[in-house]
Amino acid sequence: FDKKIDITIICPGFIKTNVTYNALTGDGKPLNVMGEAHETAMSAKDCASEIVTAVKAKKEEVYIGGKETRAVLLKRFFPKIFSKKVREAKVI
């Protein structure tokens, strides 16, 4: 281990991609629906830019996205509230 290797853990939230649109349903058919969270999410270009900035700054861990990234803190400090919010969350 004579070489120093910097590692940045990237924790993305919702990023505007076709991931939900291209997802498969239980019977294997395409979902063909863009999830609301992805429609209003950060662009992939902006996400990539933030990743590059974090890596250059040698950040150990970075959360990228919108308000959904606050869930990390909510889970850490208020786990019961987090669990309740997850159960109430609207899917797609």
Describe the structure.
- There is one protein chain.
- This protein has 92 residues and is an alpha/beta fold.
- The protein has one domain (9-88).
- Helix content is 37%, strand content 13%.
- It has 4 helices and 4 strands; from the N terminus they run ββαβαβαα.
- It has helices at residues 36-39, 44-56, 71-77, 79-88; strands at residues 9-12, 15-16, 42-43, 61-64.
- Strands 1-4 form a two-stranded parallel ribbon. It has a two-stranded parallel sheet with strand order 2-3.
- α3 packs across α4 (79-88).
- The mean pLDDT is 91.
What are the key terms here?
single chain; about 90 residues; alpha/beta; two-stranded parallel sheet; two-stranded parallel ribbon; 4 helices; 4 strands; about 15% strand; globular
In N-to-C order, the SSE pattern is EEHEHEHH
**Percentage of β-strand residues:** 5-15%
Query: Which class do the helix and strand fractions yield?
Result: alpha/beta
The neighbouring-strand order within the major sheet is 1-4
| Overall body shape | globular
Tell me the radius of gyration.
Answer: 16 Å
Largest sheet: 2 strands, parallel
Number of separate structural domains: 1
- Arithmetic mean of pLDDT: 91
